[in-house]
Amino acid sequence: MGALDDITKKATDFLTSDKGQEALKSQKAEDISDRLLESAAGAANRVTGGSQAGRIDEARDAADRRIGTDDPA
After folding, report:
1. Do the Cβ atoms of 72 and 65 come closer than 8 Å?
2. Mean pLDDT over residues 56-63, rounded?
């Protein structure tokens, strides 16, 4: 597992660096998180037939506030 350990260490080092933290707070990262949250909410709505849309939207918005840098869509 030497190669996996090396990759994990490099990723950890990057994410804890100033450059990594800047990347995580970038608009590109925000756009990606918004798309992922919207896709997850859409999938949950399809599974529930839309019967839980309000709760799903609330959960999506709460997650966006925790991980995002902008207001929820």
Report:
1. yes
2. 96
